[in-house]
Design brief:
alpha/beta, Rossmann fold, TIM Barrel, 7-stranded mixed β-sheet, globular
């Protein structure tokens, strides 16, 4: 069978990375002999014409889409377009949102044929085999579907006991060069599972409370591979990378033994770090640890079952500073029990801990305890418009603080960051000298904006190139001239940005019988 996998659009401002879940699923399907293609609508602008072209060229039997809550409506709309173009095509959805909202998705979206719940690799493969063989799917664990006008849920599938059976993610199926051009990092995981019970997270319900590990050598093999791909940073996005101290240090030791030199970032809990562990992380190239602290009020931390203390937060950040790892801390405003006073306390706590911090607003996603027990937690859901569940605006309200005040505080915080950037731009426009830090920030913003326009406008894809065996310099010069007046930058800035992209091997000049042109690498 031919399977087309869809990654729905996601804002560049949210710093997306290559779609890890989708490329992991694709790798397993390829291993099982399935013909797979990925349409990544983050870096490939979506259109109905693209749908028609993809169907005509690839002719898939099945179209599957992943989605988080904020992208689920867009994913549904895209699947409907595919179904409208080819009513015989089989449509499937997977991901955290539909896993816990399967009834509603199937009841209100007749164009969705199946939902794959939880871990998708084995479930999706078994479902495809059943469909291909023309046998009932009743025995396929972990799927939901329409049957006799009713929504049917097959029994849950046990989690994969040994995740080492899974191949490396099929990163070659997406345009890594576009993500690299935008300056985004590349992700990897070393385990699945989370034993914690935070009421605002679906992690443990998706991947289980028992942590399952990839072998140390396999982890470092993948890390070494990613270190050659010219991304500025590797993100290790395990829920609990630092929890198993012995294993974590073994990974660091192997990175150092092989002489791999590449910056990386990991997520950690404040109760899982020690000076010895942090020194090992630092020596292996870890530059930043991200801690989800969530609140500066101990009562709220206890209420949301974070199971940490403020003192442990202070200690973890101090240890990071001691060994030279930058601590990044994040907080959620609007948690149960939030009041104007607890918000002030959290903001003061954040400032006191680390200069690198940020805020999100509680988004009670389907499958979270805080949503399932909203009455118990005194939470009022304001809307089920999933488009608004981006954690940057209120979609719920506690009985102790108006949602409008939470929105105002976060907007004001983010506004100060924008004002700072605008001030740098104004000073640069006046010809004032900028610090190296501010210069780097302005260069980064310009490159981000330039590359976003290049990707969204599909200027490279639509460039015809030059006839004959033109030199690389002539082609790049001609391409730069073709962007004049279209992209909002002068000729010198366009040339500088294109040279940067070429140096990063994001773009290249290619020749064929039709001529010489510029292409994404």
């Amino acid at each position: 069978m031919k399977v087309l996998l869809i990654n729905p659009p996601y804002p560049f401002e949210e710093s997306p990375t290559p779609p890890f879940g989708l490329i992991s699923l694709a790798a397993f399907l390829l291993k099982e002999g399935v013909d797979v293609r990925i349409e990544d609508y983050i870096v490939q602008p979506y259109s109905r014409e693209r749908v028609k072209k993809t169907l005509n060229e690839f002719k898939p039997d099945v179209v599957g889409a992943t989605a988080v809550t904020m992208t689920v409506n867009r994913a549904l709309a895209i699947l409907k377009d595919y179904k409208d173009e080819n009513p015989d095509i089989i449509t499937v959805m997977g991901g955290p949102h539909v896993t816990f909202d399967a009834d509603s998705i199937l009841l209100h979206n007749g164009h969705v044929d199946y939902i794959v719940r939880g871990e998708g690799e084995i479930t999706f493969t078994e479902m495809l085999r059943a469909i291909d063989m023309g046998v009932p799917v009743d025995k396929v664990q972990g799927i939901s579907y329409h049957k006799n006008g009713m929504v049917t849920h097959n029994e849950n599938r046990p989690l994969i006991p040994d995740i080492n059976i899974l191949p490396y993610p099929a990163r070659h199926l997406v345009s890594l060069s576009k993500y690299r051009a935008m300056g985004f990092p590349i992700n990897m995981v070393t385990s699945r599972g989370c034993p914690n019970k935070c009421i605002f997270c679906v992690g443990s319900r998706m991947v289980g409370r028992k942590v399952r590990y990839f072998d140390v050598n396999r982890v470092v093999d993948e890390f070494e591979l990613l270190s050659t791909m010219r991304f500025k940073q590797i993100n290790i996005v395990d829920d609990l990378f630092t929890a198993n101290k012995k294993r974590c240090m073994a990974i660091c030791d192997e990175i150092m033994r092989r002489g791999i030199r590449h910056p990386w970032v990991a997520f950690a809990r404040v109760d899982t770090v020690s000076k010895e562990l942090l020194e090992s992380l630092k020596a292996a190239g870890c530059t930043t640890l991200c801690f989800g602290i969530e609140s500066g009020n101990q009562e709220i931390l206890d209420r949301v079952k974070k199971n940490i203390t403020l003192e442990k937060c202070r200690n973890a950040v101090a240890l990071c500073n001691d060994v030279g790892i930058e601590p990044m801390t994040s907080y959620i405003l609007g948690l149960p029990g939030e009041t104007p006073e607890t918000v002030r306390t959290t903001m003061e706590f954040a400032k006191s801990l680390s200069p690198l911090y940020g805020y999100h607003i509680l988004a009670p996603f389907p499958g979270t305890e805080v949503r399932d027990k909203k009455e118990e937690y005194g939470l009022r859901i304001l809307t089920d418009n999933w488009d608004l569940y981006d954690a940057n605006q209120s979609v719920s309200e506690t009985g102790t603080m108006p949602y409008s005040e939470i929105d105002r505080i976060v907007s004001e915080f983010n506004g100060k960051i924008r004002e700072y950037v605008e001030d740098i731009g104004a000073r640069k426009g006046k010809g004032e000298a900028l610090s190296d830090k501010d210069q780097d920030m302005m260069h980064g913003i310009q490159s981000f904006d330039f590359n976003e326009k290049l990707i969204v406008g599909e200027y490279i894809e639509n460039y015809r190139g030059l006839d004959g065996n033109a030199s690389d310099e002539d082609v790049l010069s001609d391409f730069a001239a073709s962007l004049h007046g279209k992209i909002g930058y002068d000729d010198g800035e366009i040339t500088t940005e294109l040279e940067r992209l070429r140096a990063l091997e994001c773009i290249s000049v290619t020749s064929s019988k039709a001529g010489t042109t510029v292409r994404w690498s």
